[in-house]
Automatic annotation (TrEMBL):
One of its GO terms (biological process) is monoatomic ion transmembrane transport. It comes from Rhodanobacter spathiphylli B39. SUPFAM superfamilies: NAD(P)-linked oxidoreductase (SSF51430). It comes from the Bacteria. Transmembrane segments: none annotated. This is Voltage-gated potassium channel beta subunit. Keywords: Ion channel, Ion transport, NADP, Oxidoreductase, Transport. It holds the Pfam family Aldo_ket_red. The keyword NADP applies. Belongs to the shaker potassium channel beta subunit family.
Amino acid sequence: MQYRRLGTSGLQLSALSFGAWVTFGKQVGRGEARELLALAHDRGVNFFDNAETYNNGVAEQVMGDVLADLRFPRDSYCVSSKVFFGAVDKPLPTQRGLSRKHVMEACTQALQRLRVDYLDLYFCHRPDPDTPIAETVMAMDTLVRQGKVLYWGTSEWPAEAIHEAHRIARENHLYAPVMEQPQYNLLHRERVEEEYAPLYAAYGMGTTIWSPLGSGLLSGKYNDGVPVDSRLAQPDYAWLRESVLGKGDERLRKVRALQPIADELGGSLAQLSIAWCLLNPHVSTVMLGASRREQLEQNLGALEVLPKLDATLAQRIRTIVEAA
Ligand SMILES: NC(=O)c1ccc[n+]([C@@H]2O[C@H](COP(=O)([O-])OP(=O)(O)OC[C@H]3O[C@@H](n4cnc5c(N)ncnc54)[C@H](OP(=O)(O)O)[C@@H]3O)[C@@H](O)[C@H]2O)c1
């Protein structure tokens, strides 16, 4: 495993980490979750990502039970949660968003479900137009001072709102956001590469990037249709299927065109796609998702492909994904 600093903070995260979205508590029960977390930890993965909204808190419960059962030393891994969407269907106004009330209560609930005393990373899962940014920054600062959160950050906030959070923190001597959690993959690059570019230099922010395979698209598994046991075939995720596959054939054409490069490298397309994310020095960790052991095994092998991705290959890849 390789380790990277989370921006300019002192925290070193494994270059590949592992998250629970869609899978834990839905496709993956406690037994499989145990196998996946054990494999990841054994290979040096030290960051496990979660959120209050993942299967309405069940993903956190599954992860918490399994981490307790595996008895990993608490100082050998980092665990996160995210607040915003709530942990129930149809949340009441006090059960969602980034008000001081919900941020504090959601943190308490995440600690209980994950069975830990503190969250290493805690994210504001989206911007909340109904809460002043200052209120959220102050709530996060309180959690850090209480020792319930070590590093706080944002997820998919516009750069402008992150600048504002930093301004408020600086002027009031409050803990500022340390990291962003944006989507980043070969087919989704603009925010990480352009919009956020000024943030890295100005504040030393790191990124924990999500959906490196675009929900599996960049493994090539959807090239010939939607396999029945795949994420995009899940009945509750029709919206995701539409968002990943509903944009015509252009994305699938690019995925198919990348396959020969993976073949040349002697790796899988998933490994190529994950390794490519790590070429970006502002990516602190690539958060993997997996519904079964073979996927996680394969995806962790991206680190073997990474040294083979030289400038010429990177340019060939860019030409394919940037083609109209
Ligand atoms: N902050 C946010 O808003 C946000 C949003 C999304 C995710 N996240 C975090 O980021 C983590 C990773 O995102 P993600 O799960 O979307 O990552 P991803 O790598 O884009 O997709 C993972 C899914 O792709 C399929 N897959 C993975 N490896 C494969 C392989 N080698 N061959 C074939 N299929 C493969 C599996 O689904 P199937 O087997 O079911 O097809 C797996 O669950 C999440 O778990 C979550 O912690 C955060």
